Hints:
The protein is an alpha+beta fold. The protein contains 18 helices and 18 strands. The strands form two sheets. Strands 3, 4, 5, 6, 11, 12, 13, 14, 15 and 16 form a ten-stranded mixed β-sheet that branches. Residues 406-526 form the Alpha-glycerophosphate oxidase C-terminal domain.
Amino acid sequence: MPRTSMPRADILAELRQDEPFDLLIIGGGATGCGIALDAANRGLKVALVEKQDFAEGTSSRSTKLVHGGVRYLEMAVKHLDRVQYNLVRDGLHERGILLNNAPHLACRLPLVTPLYRWLDIPYIYAGLKLYDLLAGKRGLGRSRLLSRREALRRFPLLRAEGLKAGVLYYDGQFNDARMALTLAMTAREQGALVVNDVAAVELLKEGRRLVGATLEEQQTGERFTLRARGIINATGPFVDSIRRFDAPNAEPILEASSGIHIVLDERFAPPDTGLMIPKTEDGRVLFVLPWEGHALIGTTDEPAEVREHPRPLEEEIAYLLRHVGRYFNLQVTLGDVKSAWCGLRPLVRDPKASDTARLARDHVIEVSSSGLLTIAGGKWTTYRKMAQDAVDHAVRVFGLNPLRDCGTEQLPLIGAGGERQVIEAELREEFGLSTDLSGHLYHAYGDRAPDVARLAAGGLAARLDANHPFIEAEVVYAARFEMAVHAVDVLARRLPLALLDRDAARRAASRVLELLAGELGWDAERHSREAALVEERLREGL
């Protein structure tokens, strides 16, 4: 049986076996899932556990951009900072790989930078041409100057008063939550045992060396031991918590900053062009992006306490609305906000940095005296390189014997086969789906979209909400084939409904709960707990 179809109980049974794994990876975000895929592809025996859901934390709360980092390039040039320069170079290289290996989940996005001062034109234009140059053959399109008229044509809501010109450049956009899930599923297909809702609660030592961990299944509270030759801590903002399992007095290696995003309806952004404001009043970068038929706006960058499910604060939402109002010819109010969420960025500590915006997004790898390998920092775009670096390091440190070298640079992810036009045509002609449904299913599932359509044809074609292209079949598919454990897993990550429109997610919740209860065998008590959890997450933070 393909591991992507293995029942959860069978996965847990295999994790309980006595024979040690080569690697135990703790953390199921971008980095952890990328490491699991890389290691499994090399032929290593791999287990990954995630305390909550895949990408439930930082990895599903990004700006949805696959980018080299325009701001980092500016820092590199201004401060002759090689770390920032390398981050941009690697990001642009990895951007091309991600778009190539997951074309259903990622695409090219044109962005406009409006310029309101004549002096800004040569500065911004030169910076973006350097961005193109660093991208090289993996570039997505050439940056160019836009006249005032063309800038307004591409982004009609731009404030026209004082606008001098614009610059057009290109980056990538993607579905971050589904990307993490797809990495996890591809890792399973490559032979890894990957499971969510299982926490590492203790690290086990023999003498001074780590030999495994005590794991806890979150639903039942059952604990069991997993032995491994090497343990990788890839828990994002929570890496210091795992490090303290190993060494209670370990000095922290990360600081966290919070970034919030808000979602407005489609009238605030054209469907095919984003907006990048290079510098707000306090030096931040602001994006207004089309995303899933809505306008996504972010982000902030403030020091933050590490906690699960951080909440977007009213003053942070007001900050974004205030800045949007400065650049739009349209009044934007709190009533226009359909959803908001907050994510934590794990930033490598630098005591010399004056604020979190200056902390390096590059990643670091640390190995403790007992053998805990921690990877920290980085960003979504460079997840694959981070994974390669971590596995290379693990092979050396733990004395592992992979069957082959890293092969992820040219490894298509699940769903990447087939041509978009052919798949969407099949969905419309064979299954009678509308254009918006066929487009949505392709972008979420790629060449596996017909599998979802077959479920829909069996009586599950109804939309979960009339205003969104998400259907009942996707809920059942998520439970059977995508490791969904909770209703909020479906509403916030298998589908982005809660991220787009919290009121719509509330309306859809009862049907999602009903479908999952039937698939997963929930009793009345479990059903009630799940309903309460959905409401809590929608109210307090996804």
